[in-house]
Amino acid sequence: GHGRRSRINQTTVMHLAAERGAVEDLELEEVMLTGFRGVKCVESGGPEPGVGCAGRGIITAINFLEENGAYQDLDFVSYDVLGDVVCGGFAMPIREGKAQEIYIVTSGEMMRMYAPALG
């Protein structure tokens, strides 16, 4: 049989920073989860849909991770960001020199085209 899987709600960097008043008040251990085979995961979070700039949230989270040593001893880093963010989205990590390559993943389902408008 298959092992029982449990879902853990992960606290995002931006949510915790908003609660504390500043991203500098966070500890890496509060936002980083370690999963299967040592894979480490951090969720940046961002503003409510249609409000603010999610791209800035992404860069804030990446800078926090860099400043707190999250990238030490890693073989690979992957960013999963929305492509429809008006003020940067998938371009922000590259524009800020945080990524070397982009892979665009999409599906043939047409509702994906309408999701931003529904948000």
UniProtKB/TrEMBL annotation:
UniProt source species: uncultured Mastigocladus sp
Enzyme Commission identifier(s): 1.18.6.1
Molecular-function annotations in GO: 4 iron, 4 sulfur cluster binding; ATP binding; metal ion binding; nitrogenase activity
Role of this protein: The key enzymatic reactions in nitrogen fixation are catalyzed by the nitrogenase complex, which has 2 components: the iron protein and the molybdenum-iron protein.
Reaction catalysed by this enzyme: N2 + 8 reduced [2Fe-2S]-[ferredoxin] + 16 ATP + 16 H2O = H2 + 8 oxidized [2Fe-2S]-[ferredoxin] + 2 NH4(+) + 16 ADP + 16 phosphate + 6 H(+)
Cofactor: [4Fe-4S] cluster
Protein name per Swiss-Prot or TrEMBL: nitrogenase
Family the entry assigns: Belongs to the NifH/BchL/ChlL family.
